[in-house]
Amino acid sequence: MTAPQRLAGLTLLLALLAIRPLLAQDDVADVKSQDLCVDNDEHKRFFLIGPGENERSPANGFGLIVVLPGGDGSADFHPFVKRIFKYAAPKGFLLAEPVAVKWTKDQEITWPTANTKTAGMKFTTEEFVGAVIDDTQKRYQIDPKQVFTLSWSSGGPAAYVISTSQRKVTGSFIAMSVFCPADLTLAGAKGQAYYLYHSPGDGVCPFRMSQEAEKTLETAGAKVKLVHYDGGHGWHGNVFGDIRDGLQWLQKANAD
Fold first, then answer.
1. Are 81 and 149 spatial neighbours (Cβ–Cβ below 8 Å)?
2. Which residues, in sequence order, are bridge partners of residue 35?
């Protein structure tokens, strides 16, 4: 395991502790959510959030945001992800929240990929996300130009891999994450859009990694915006306003 991968594993507990206050409130009882499994496979569990009450599909179909939480990626993050839908998601978008699989009790990488496999895994995160997108497309009309991922901390490395390895995703909001270019097929970044969100005071995932990601991905032909925030690792300040800004930037980048 490489040093960046070990660093990603060490963020699990810290990320969960940082976000715990956002999980404790209960103001999202009105947000529609379905607890689903792709092809009845209990390992491919995900929550599908939306559409809103009486919300009609846009002419080109709903946009879709696939959320890869940080920490342990468990279902405990569901209230926070429902808040993202309620307070930050652009109108006309659905949210899909895969639940990370715990393949072994001592698993270090929350979202293992083709290059960061863990013992006993039956599929990679990129395959899991692809299956969630396909399943959602069977349930609702989805605009293929507006399919994004939203990830933070331990979810970020897999989001980078997904963006460069398959074309179902067109934009990526990646927050407070490590960057492992050796795990990527950088040619796949061409034409992709990335909104990177990171604190210079992050003591868990070094800020320089987002700076490296910005340069590397732009060189590969991607559209990239790196935004700073104060407070160190975790969600701080105007959380949902900042998430909304990033998702709207991805919308515009894809429309352009």
1. no
2. 47
